[in-house]
Structure formats: C-alpha cells, structure tokens
Amino acid sequence: MWSHDGILCFCDTLKNAVRLTFPKGAQMKDPHKLLNTRLDSKTVRAIDFHEGDTINEAALQALILEAVGLNKSQANEPSFYESPHLS
C-alpha cells in the first residue's frame, strides 16, 4: 500500500496479473486509459498488469500524482464521523 494524506493505491497479486487498485479511482482522470478493471465500481478503479505488458511509466506517474492531488484536496474535509450530519 502507498499513501500520502490517505491511501493512494495498493497492490494485489492475482493468478495471472498484478493489480494496482486506486480507492478513489472513479474520481480520477485517465486520459491514457491505464485503468482497465473494476470499471463498474462507483469508487474504485484498478490496473491489471500482465506478464509482458509494456508500462507507460509517465502515464502511471501522472495517475499516481493525481491520486496525491485528490488526497490533498480532501485532506481538510471533515470525515463522515466529524461531519454535522451526526450532530
């Protein structure tokens, strides 16, 4: 798991792939179409890397930096449990 002001992404090993999952992936722009799985989720998006895949490192770095930006922009927002909805 990698984090910066919250979870950025985490990695799972699958039978035929390595999956990099972004918990806030549905909020992220993906102009290079790296996110290729969990596309039906309302929040999460992921990338499955298969043996022999070519990785667009610049696009992956941009995606990770966008995740950092999302976490930073939401870092000052109160959590659900701190929100006035529970008052």
Structure notes:
It is a single chain. The chain has one domain (2-76). With 87 residues, the chain is α+β, with helices and mostly antiparallel strands. Helices cover 21% and strands 22% of the residues. The protein starts with a strand and ends in a 13-residue tail after the last helix. The mean pLDDT is 89. Strands 1-2-3-4 form a 4-stranded antiparallel beta sheet.
What portion of residues belong to β-strands?
Answer: 15-25%
Instruction: Give me the secondary-structure category.
Output: alpha+beta
How are the strands of the largest sheet arranged? 1-2-3-4
The main β sheet shows up as: 4 strands, antiparallel
Spans of at least 5 consecutive residues whose pLDDT stays below 50 are none
Q: What's the N-to-C terminus distance? A: 33 Å
Categorize the overall geometry.
Answer: globular
Helix content: 10-25%
Query: What is the CA-based Rg, rounded?
Result: 15 Å
Q: Write the element-wise H/E pattern from the N-terminal end onward.
A: EEEEH
Number of domains: 1
- Count of discrete alpha- or pi-helical segments spanning 4 or more residues: 1
Number of strands: 4
| Mean pLDDT, all residues | 89
